[in-house]
Amino acid sequence: MVNWRKQTAHFVAKACAESLAPAHPGVTLRHLASNVASHCRMARLCANIEHEEDQPSLANAEAALNKQIQEQFEILGQYLEEK
Question: For the chain, which residues make up each domain, given as ranges?
Fold first, then answer.
């Protein structure tokens, strides 16, 4: 039986490793974003299979995203005030 949690972690690790690829000679940046995105999609798919969902649940992420957006606006506001 497949351990979907480990598969998810595997693809997250591959995305992280791929993001370091520009440090290696012969790797083109053109494919970097596509490869990282592909690994992220596979990680999301494995996580969804583990939870038997067609779509990821974003209920818990909404509050965190709103907080992040608010913090970004505050940082931007501080930066613009200093200019």
Answer: 4-82
